[in-house]
Specification:
The protein is an all-alpha fold and 363 residues long. It has a domain at 4-235: MFS general substrate transporter like domains (Growth Hormone, Chain: A, Up-down Bundle). The chain has helices at 4-38, 42-70, 72-89, 93-102, 109-117, 122-144, 147-158, 161-193, 195-216, 228-234, 259-262, 266-297, 305-331, 337-349; strands at residues 240-241, 246-247. The N and C termini lie far apart (57 Å).
């Protein structure tokens, strides 16, 4: 039997890794490199990250519908293409700020920094630069919102129900790997070649991924890399159960559910509430822990890299465990898939509370 489905998981994992690398560039460069140039305060950075979160949340409401409309392959290409373009856009915010505030239209990042330094009206520099970064974050958010809907759809197309939780945990770990790699790479790129190059180098990874996706991904039934045995394994949920004399396939499979109707299902609300209670902690760690270490302990982005690495490493280990527990509850406790996943989510919802125990250790 071929194993092309695992190649797809690797691609999804890499896309999610790039997704979080792009998201992390700003949080790892703003305090040491960007803020001094544009005279930003914590409030300015908070405004940018807050609006990004809103853009991302709103975009997520429509991303799934877009992926369904475009299909998995094209939808994912559009998503990663848009967010990679948005990531690279950040690098040119300094050039535009220099042109608008100082009248110096240059293609030199160093020249732009010098021009901005001559502007006497600091509030103008802050206003223009924040506006430009907000726009770049808007483009980034719109594209990044498509990653998880597309990855989940690809997983559903390539894996039977019993394997989807594990496959999802693998590609989802890309978020932690991306967050893990970010402090080990981005600050050093910014220190060596400037913060602009950090956005360009990391943003370019998405365009490289697109080149591989075009040739690797096809629907299982149309892929030349999927043989008959693997296709039968993938479609096992649709097979007829001879012992019960009925088809196992979900009667609702393939039927479209309207946006409004989705809120009538308890599964929708359970998932939404769970994400609401836990995602805030993760996003706080993504956006603010580098600045926190800088402000409280005086560590620059390169010095704080090992500490940030440890935080995200713990998160990565937890993700792999998250893929194990739903399967454990289903196989050992004989729960149905929904109950198994909800019980696992409840268990992990308590973990962020452990952060409170770390406060006395900070001195």
């Amino acid at each position: 039997m071929t194993n092309h489905r695992w190649t797809i998981v690797v691609m999804l994992f890499m896309a999610t890794t790039v997704n979080y690398l792009d998201r992390q560039v700003l949080s790892l460069t703003w305090a040491d490199f960007i803020a001094p140039e544009f005279h930003w305060t914590n409030s300015d950075y908070g405004t940018i990250t807050g609006l990004f979160s809103i853009f991302y949340a709103v975009s997520m409401l429509f991303a799934g519908k877009f992926i369904d409309w475009m299909d998995t392959k094209k939808g994912f290409l559009w998503a990663i293409g848009v967010w990679s373009f948005g990531a690279v856009m950040h690098a040119f915010c300094g050039l535009l700020t220099a042109g608008i505030t100082a009248g110096e239209w240059t293609m030199s990042f160093h020249g732009a920094r010098q021009a901005i330094g001559t502007v006497g009206d600091v509030s103008l520099v802050v206003s223009v630069s924040v506006t430009l970064f907000v726009f770049a974050r808007l483009v980034l958010a719109i594209g990044e919102a498509g990653n998880f809907p597309a990855a989940i759809k690809a997983t559903a197309e390539y894996f039977p129900k019993k394997d989807r939780a594990y496959a999802t945990s693998i590609f989802n770990s890309g978020a932690q790997i991306g967050a893990l790699l970010a402090p080990l790479t981005i600050p050093f790129i910014a220190k060596a070649w400037g913060w602009e190059m950090a956005f360009i180098v990391i943003g370019a990874l998405g365009f490289i991924w697109m080149g591989f996706w075009v040739f690797i991904y096809h629907k299982p039934e149309k892929s030349k890399k999927v043989n008959t045995l693997e296709l039968a394994y993938i479609n096992q949920d649709d097979a007829t159960d001879a012992t019960e004399g009925r088809v196992k396939a979900d009667e609702n499979a393939g039927k479209k559910v309207s946006f409004n109707k989705a809120f009538k299902y308890k599964q929708t609300w359970s998932f939404a509430v769970g994400k609401f209670l836990t995602d805030g902690v993760w996003w706080f760690l993504l956006f603010w822990i580098p600045a926190y270490l800088s402000s409280v302990y005086g560590l620059d982005s390169t010095q704080s890299a090992p500490h940030v690495f440890v935080v995200y490493a713990i998160s990565m280990i937890s993700v792999f465990a998250a893929g194990y527990f739903p399967a454990y509850f289903m196989e050992k406790k004989k729960l149905d898939p929904y109950q198994g996943r909800m019980r696992a989510m409840l268990l992990f919802a308590f973990f962020p509370l452990l952060i409170l125990l770390a406060q006395p250790l900070g001195g």
